[in-house]
């Protein structure tokens, strides 16, 4: 990736990290008008950055999060003795004669700070697999797929615009957003030869369609009572589950009112 593209991904990641804090902080300081103003500005900035990545840099299907979080355990370098013996493979592992279990040899045990519980082969395979995933270029998008990804990127702006036109209690913004999400996924489903990260992203978007059960006005009219009833039944009749479901029942109404939790 070029340096400008990396900067765009960095700014996009920063916006996704601070959007909920910005919404709640602005609502506390400037009220409801300030809250919706910062929501529109953040969604507009995210859409512009994503469209630049899509149309100018040909970044393909946009990932979430834009920058893959660093796995420090996998990034730890191998023990020096492991790297010396890597080519020969001697004294790194011991294979049990009867169990055929592979265990690390005591001679190649790393220091406590860099120790891991897998065999050297497993660690090398995971590191090589991660490097291969990171180095895979994005799948080229045709006109249909580019339109589909553009629909997904601009859907938050169209949803906000429809909220301003028809109001928050209208079904039209909810239906418009659902149609755009489903249309985008349907158009992208014809794309073949996706890499692993792109397939995972499409699966994530498909699972996120369940959020429409928690989005107003569907949640206010249909889902709220049923979800709270189910959580209450689990808390009362399933031992040990109440430690999770009771705080969730108290947290769900507050969570549902935060725009970036529901629609971001």
UniProtKB/TrEMBL annotation:
- Location within or outside the cell: Peroxisome membrane
User: Which residue stretches, if any, does this entry annotate as coiled coil?
Assistant: none
Identify one Gene Ontology CC term for this UniProt entry: peroxisomal membrane
Q: Which Pfam families match?
A: Pex16
Give the Basic and acidic residues compositional bias ranges. 122-133
Principal subcellular localisation of the protein? membrane
Does the record carry Transferase as a key word?
no
Sorted alphabetically, the keyword list is: Peroxisome, Peroxisome biogenesis
Chain intervals for the UniProt region annotation (Disordered): 74-140
Keyword Signal tagged: no
| PANTHER family cross-referenced by the UniProt entry | PEROXISOMAL MEMBRANE PROTEIN PEX16
Similarity field: Belongs to the peroxin-16 family.
Protein name in UniProt: Peroxisomal membrane protein PEX16
Organismal lineage: Eukaryota, Metazoa, Chordata, Craniata, Vertebrata
């Amino acid at each position: 990736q070029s340096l400008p593209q990396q900067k765009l991904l960095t700014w996009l990641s920063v916006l996704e990290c601070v959007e909920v804090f910005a919404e709640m902080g602005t609502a506390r300081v400037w009220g409801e008008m300030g809250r919706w103003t910062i929501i529109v500005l953040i969604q507009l900035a995210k859409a512009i950055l994503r469209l630049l990545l899509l149309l100018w840099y040909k970044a393909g299907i946009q990932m979430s999060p834009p920058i893959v979080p660093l796995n420090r355990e996998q990034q730890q370098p191998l023990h020096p003795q492991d790297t010396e013996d890597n080519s020969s493979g001697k004294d790194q592992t011991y294979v049990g004669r009867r169990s055929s279990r592979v265990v690390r040899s005591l001679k190649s045990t790393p220091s406590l700070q860099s120790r891991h519980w897998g065999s050297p082969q497993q660690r090398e395979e995971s590191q090589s697999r991660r490097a291969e995933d990171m180095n895979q270029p994005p799948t080229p998008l045709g006109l249909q797929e580019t339109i589909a990804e553009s629909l997904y990127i601009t859907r938050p702006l169209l949803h906000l615009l429809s909220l301003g036109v028809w109001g928050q209690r209208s079904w039209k913004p909810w239906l418009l957003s659902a149609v755009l999400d489903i249309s985008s996924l349907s158009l992208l489903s014809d794309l073949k030869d996706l890499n692993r990260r792109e397939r995972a992203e499409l699966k994530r978007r498909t699972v996120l369609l369940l959020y429409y059960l928690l989005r107003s006005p569907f949640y206010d009219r249909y889902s709220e009572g049923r979800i709270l009833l189910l959580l209450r039944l689990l808390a009362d009749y399933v031992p040990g589950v109440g430690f999770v479901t009771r705080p969730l029942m108290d947290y769900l109404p507050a969570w549902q009112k935060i725009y970036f939790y529901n629609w971001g």
